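Worked problem 6 (solution included).
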Amino acid sequence: MKRARPTPHRSVSTATSRRLLQAVQPAIAAASLNASQLLALQAFDVAFRTGSFKASAQLLNLSPSAVSHRIRNLEQALGAALFVRTHRAIAATAEGKILAAATGRAFAELARVGSSATGKAARQRLRLKVLPMFASAWLIPRLAGFMTQHPDIDLAIESSSRNVDFELEAFDAGISVGDGMFEGITAHHLAAIRTTPVAAPSLARRLNLREPSDLRRAALIHVTTFPAAWPLWLEHAGVAKLKPARTISVDSFVAAMQAAEQGAGVALGLEPFIIERERQGTICRPLSLAHPTGSYWLVHPPGAQRNRTLQVFKRWLLAELSTSGGIAQFCR
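Solution. The predicted structure is:
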């Protein structure tokens, strides 16, 4: 009986082995776009943010026709219209809005990385977006102290009534208002915000302001960008239907405070940013009632925790806030 001969083992050639074992080279996203496509995406993103080809052209140092041409080429490549064009304006289509969400995040992140790429240099730069009241009433007066303590750090501060949007804006951090529930970003509590009536001492004495109902004798100074501020405080004080002698409207809490200092009427001051003016005696609190309206927060993208310059600024900021309190100055 013949024994079955074992099947001889066949070796795989070296060339075949390489073909079997070598992983497929992953596609490189950056290499999939040519220069004209990148420039077209830049023109599209700027046009979407500004809402104008003309404004985009000025920012990009191009002609409006060049911006329009780049965007038309992009539309042809994508096979979809990105803007609805009229004689004087442009409006993004649904496809344009979807693309803008992606380009906004991408360009903002590139700008942030680019601005921090000089971190190895002797000087470092921190870009902040700060709400106007916090900037003018608290941060700006203390900047000299920070610059003295940290001569190697440059601050670039932009004030805006809107909270920072890190998906669209190239800031390292911001000081925003809210309840702390900021999706996708890191937030550090800075100070609670409360509104309370303030007035020039002479006006408070002349109108004999002692109870919330006494405000009917005063001119109330409203802030147009926060129209609910006075109604909420009056409701909290139990005088929701109060009709003041007259009303004055200004566009910011800073302007409202200046008007109150001049005796024009009663404004709503924001704690804790009225303390310095109280110490100077330019305003006082005719009533003790304060209405909580949220908090200030230092916010930044999660990855920014590795930003040494930001950590230095945060430590300084928290230390300053811990020592900047004061005693309320009530009108006599």
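Discussion: The mean pLDDT is 83.
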